[in-house]
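Hi V.,

Quick status before I head out on leave. The structure for the redesign project is tokenized and pasted below; the design run finished overnight.
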């Protein structure tokens, strides 16, 4: 009896020792610090970039730190653990600051983005991690609002014909819209299907690869956009709330300024009272001017010679498959990246110099749009434009029409 109890006690003691030993043997993540050094673009007069806001987000935990670089362009983040991080940096230069650094008297947005930085103590021990900013001129025309999610019909069906874009004159001077191009950027919006991968052109930071090109008609001065006003470009310029369309739609686009009618389509609607955009390039969908309801990448841009732009084959497609058009970043006036969700940052299609972040809605067919944050300046509505859609845009439960 005594021996049996003793044996049992020894067994329990041995089991507890094993648990204790297992806990002691578990590897423990040791926190470390990492220093970052921010640099202006290579053609600036100065190298180190002071006053830059740097954000570091742990992709596993979602925790985020934000700091501003010192006079030497450096910042230190502490209490880090090994893992994958999103590193972003941004600053806006006034006209005076830009003139001193570049000789160009125009405001400049500077940005940097790395969606999947693998941080470790070993990497941090090698010295400051370099962050090279890139940027574009501020002001002028901006994409103010994108309504792409679509809506539900009263019967619970999906309706996507009510998509639209709003372009806004964010400056104090009239701007001629004639010749302005609106394009969808090639690539999926996230891990929608198991076999879908990010855009194969993602690594080219100097170009945008587009799958459509629509142009505002005119001879040069036919369509003038006055300061602090906007235009609506509809997929279909009809009253989408009508009984024959979708009474559940949030918008009536019969007063849109332009529409994206697909020439040659037997199913698209050509609204008689809304002028058509010129269809310059639209090889992927002969039926509608639909953009992804999961989130399009959108640019407005200009070119004097569209035919001179290079057309590029999409990797792993047949020789007869439509190609995309390679647009230099220098031609882009504004860009807005929208993706399926907050978790789909790896699917960005637009370089950080044009848009360092991305916006998103809560789901497809929700009737939601994304719209720029605004402020009143001298009685005029001015929209935030830091070239970072994550900061500049907010979710709107319903689209906002002028």
């Amino acid at each position: 009896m005594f021996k049996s109890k003793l044996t049992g006690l020894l067994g329990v003691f041995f089991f507890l020792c094993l648990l204790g030993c297992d806990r002691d043997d578990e590897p423990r993540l040791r926190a470390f610090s990492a220093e970052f050094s921010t640099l202006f673009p290579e053609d600036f007069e100065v190298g180190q970039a002071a006053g830059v806001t740097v954000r570091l987000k742990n992709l596993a935990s979602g925790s985020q730190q934000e700091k501003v670089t010192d006079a030497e362009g450096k910042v230190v983040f502490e209490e880090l653990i090994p893992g994958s991080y999103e590193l972003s940096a941004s600053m806006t230069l006034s006209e005076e600051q830009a003139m001193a650094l570049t000789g160009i008297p125009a405001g400049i947005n500077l940005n940097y983005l790395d969606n999947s930085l693998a941080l470790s103590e070993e990497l941090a021990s090698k010295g400051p991690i370099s962050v090279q900013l890139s940027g574009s001129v501020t002001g002028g025309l901006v994409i103010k609002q994108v309504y792409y999610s679509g809506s539900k019909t009263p019967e619970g069906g999906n309706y996507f014909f009510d998509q639209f874009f709003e372009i806004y004159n964010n400056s104090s001077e009239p701007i001629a819209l004639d010749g302005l191009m609106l394009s969808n950027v090639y690539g999926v919006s996230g891990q929608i299907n198991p076999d879908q991968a990010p855009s194969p052109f993602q690594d080219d930071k100097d170009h945008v690869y587009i799958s459509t090109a629509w142009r505002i008609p005119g001879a040069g001065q036919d369509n003038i956009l006055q300061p602090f006003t906007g235009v609506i470009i509809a997929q279909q310029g009809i009253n989408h709330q009508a009984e024959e369309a979708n009474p559940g739609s949030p918008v009536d686009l019969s007063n849109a300024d332009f529409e994206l009618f697909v020439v040659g389509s037997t199913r698209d609607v050509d609204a008689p009272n809304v002028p058509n955009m010129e269809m310059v390039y639209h090889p992927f969908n002969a039926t509608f001017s639909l953009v992804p309801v999961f989130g399009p990448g959108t640019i407005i841009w200009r070119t004097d010679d569209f035919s001179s732009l290079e057309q590029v084959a999409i990797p792993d497609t047949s020789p007869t498959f439509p190609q995309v058009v390679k647009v230099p970043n220098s031609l882009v006036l504004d860009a807005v990246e929208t993706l399926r969700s907050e978790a789909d940052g790896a699917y960005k299609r637009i370089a950080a110099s044009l848009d360092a972040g991305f916006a998103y809605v809560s789901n497809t067919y929700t009737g939601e749009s994304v719209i720029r944050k605004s402020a009143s300046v001298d009685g005029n509505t001015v929209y935030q434009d830091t070239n970072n859609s994550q900061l500049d845009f907010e979710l709107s439960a319903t689209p906002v029409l002028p």
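Above is the designed sequence. The first strand starts at residue 32 and ends at 39.

G. will cover questions while I'm gone.

Best,
W.
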